[in-house]
Amino acid sequence: MTLLNFKHLHYFWVVAHEGSITRAAERLGVAVQTISGQLSLLERQLGKALFNSQGRGLVLSEAGRAALGYADRIFELGDALVDAVHNSSNDNTLRLRAGISDGIPKLLAYGLLSKVTAMSDDVRLICNEGEFENLLADLALHRLDVVLTDRPAPVGGSLKVFSTPLGEFATGLFACAELAARHHADFPHGLGGAPLLVPTRHYALRNHIERWLERMSIRPNIVGEFEDSALMATFGRGGLGLFPAPLALAEQIFSQLDAVPIGAMDGVSEQIYALSNERRIRHPAVELLCASGGAGETPPTWGV
User: Fold this and answer.
1) How far is CA 8 from CA 19, 69, 272, in A?
2) pLDDT in tens, the chain (304 residues)
3) pTM passes above 0.70
4) 92: Cα within 13 Å, side-chain hemisphere
């Protein structure tokens, strides 16, 4: 198998983004003929035309669009490599770049990651928050070491990402004092028409909540849908509605949000996973995090 020439690929990548060989030559400081020759060699190696002529410019062919997607990832990863080496230091600091899915309760993420910050090594935690698909892409590009999310890695895709269950957390409904006093006594049957805040349908917890409501024959008034669990809890603190959260965090939720649990949602729980790009984990902090979890076992607690 002939190895890919990354110089040829880089020329193709610049031409694709500039839209013409002339502009690419100006950007790279080389002759137009040089780029044309390199593109011809790359197309010959791949066995496909990467561009089609359109007027005085070039447009990507189907093969070219596919190649550009891979080239983008390759050169993004190259930039990340340079940054990582440039910013590395000679000290003994262990860096953990963690991605946290929007829907994961932030207090829950804190509790899980506190195991890492309590390591005897000098640890620097770098947290990014975002949507599942974006975090998965960053993990595949090695921009992240681990992702905390509410769903396992997709099966059968081209990305090599592995899932470790960290625990299953029973869920209840929480509310500010006024709403709690109104809906606690006849829980759950007194929730008909009650204002309710829920995650959007992107998150597995939403489906569990809807099935529970159907099973209980309860029709609350859904007054808000949220991508971000922290924003949902903030609106709940303000009295907009009841909101779901892990019962294991009741003490912290009361302390920080002045909200109390009004009842457990039997059969509703949130499964948390750690996603990594290594089947055999070598990062000490990721290894510790994954080792502390279990496949549906009793969830860890801290200070409750």
Assistant:
1) 16, 16, 43
2) 567 888 899 999 999 988 888 888 898 899 989 999 999 999 999 899 999 887 777 889 999 999 998 888 888 878 767 766 665 655 567 889 999 998 888 888 988 998 888 887 778 899 999 888 889 888 988 889 999 999 898 877 667 788 999 999 999 999 999 999 999 888 998 899 999 999 998 888 999 999 999 999 999 999 999 998 889 999 999 999 999 999 999 999 999 999 999 999 999 999 999 999 877 888 889 998 888 764 333 444 433 3
3) no
4) 4
